[in-house]
Amino acid sequence: MEQNNQTTWSYFIIRGISDVPELQLPTFLLVLLIYLITLGGNMTILLLVCLDPQLHTPMYFFLGNLSALDISSSTVSLHKVLAIYVSGDRRVSFLGCIVQFYVFSCLACSELLILAAMSYDRYVAICNPLRYFILMNPRVCTLLATVCWTLGFVEVVPYVVLLTQFSCYKSNIINHFFCDLVPLLSLSCSDTSTLEMLSFIEGLLLLSLTPFTLTITPYVFIISTILGIRSSTGRRKAFYTCSSHLTVVTVLYVTLICQYLRPTSSDSLEFIKLFSLFNTAAVPMLNPLIYSLKNRDVKSALRRKLKIVT
Fold first, then answer.
1. Dihedral over alpha carbons 266, 268, 274, 277 (to 10 degrees)
2. How far is CA 215 from each of CA 90, 200, 257, rounded to the nearest angstrom?
3. CA 93 to CA 166: how far, in whole Å?
4. Beta pairing class for 173-174 and 11-14
5. I need a surface site. Which of 61, 169, 216, 249 has the fewest CB within 10 A?
6. Under 8 Å CB-to-CB from 139, ≥6 apart: which residues?
7. How far apart are CA 71 and CA 107, in angstroms?
8. CB 116 within 8 A of CB 216
């Protein structure tokens, strides 16, 4: 690779999850298995939501959006890991790297916002059940989902604009299994202070804290309403309706906190890679399992469709 005095590169090399030769096949098989489970589980939920009339409700409309996001984000982040083993080519063009970062980040931001919309849906269902289908009518649900997807794809644009202005990199070897912001910043010998400040301010306040607040705040009212229910059966039923969503939110945000809010050290990229793998591979795989195992409606819909097939 020719290198000029500004250390510019026409492509990056993805280091991957592990560069130990003995671990290549086990890593490939593990990632492939996780991806297939993720794809199968989320596609099942997405098809059930589309095809089963009893799941044509606001809650499952947003669940379908969540499944679509999980399928897309897993494909975007894991496809290079699988392609490296099959083709042996670890290279990715500069433009391809930026596009991968942009698409994955957009999907991640949209997922956090969809989870916030699902919290609002559960708030209306439990705290204002008599007006639930009025307040959460199809027009409102479609508008909320559209806003979530649109904001997700708009919020990351400033990062991409600043990244494309970087002209100097110390190396073209990315210590990650896909193009993410932190590994790219660690390689740059351009001035990254503006992007780091943007990442801290917008990333913390707009991309993280705002969705987190919008997700958790409804649960303050939900828990207050549940505690006010006199019947223990009523309390269990009310909590059951939001337990799956609350579990998914807890797993996702705990992972994000471990990934991004840990002290900086020399091995920080290895820890980020580890938690990023869990966040991009395991969490999308767990989401459909959590919803199907803890949700009678989904299990009933699956049994109905299996009966039709058989």
1. -130
2. 38, 21, 15
3. 15
4. parallel
5. 216
6. none
7. 10
8. no
Closest by Cα among 60, 99, 62 to 79: 99
Alpha carbon separation from 159 to 181, 186, 199, 234, 301 (Å, rounded): 9, 15, 8, 47, 42
The structure's pTM equals: 0.90
Non-local (6+) Cβ contacts of 179 within 8 A are 12, 14, 92, 96, 97, 98, 100, 101, 104
Q: Give the integer Cα–Cα distance in Å for 207 and 160.
A: 15
Give the separation between CA 289 and CA 243, rounded to whole angstroms. 13
CB atoms within 10 A of CB 95: 11
User: Which DSSP state fits 15?
Assistant: -
Q: Taking the CA atoms of the chain, what radius of gyration do you get in angstroms? A: 21
Going by C-alpha positions, the residue among 69, 108, 96 that lies closest to residue 14 is: 96
Distances (CA, A) of 51 to 108, 121, 304: 26, 21, 11
- Rounded Cα distance, 235 and 107, in Å: 35
Task: Confirm if 12 and 92 have CB atoms less than 8 A apart.
Answer: yes
Tokens of 137: 């009518």
For residues 78 and 281, the answer to whether their CB atoms sit within 8 Å is yes
Length of the chain: 310
Q: Is the dihedral of CA 275, 76, 151, 44 positive or negative?
A: negative
pLDDT score at 153: 94
CA distance 163 to 264: 22
Measured CA to CA, the distance from residue 136 to residue 144 in angstroms comes to: 10
pLDDT in tens, 50-102: 998 888 999 999 999 999 999 999 999 998 889 988 888 899 999 999 999 99
Distance CA 63, CA 69 (A): 10
Q: Hey, how many other C-beta atoms are within 10 angstroms of the C-beta on 284?
A: 29
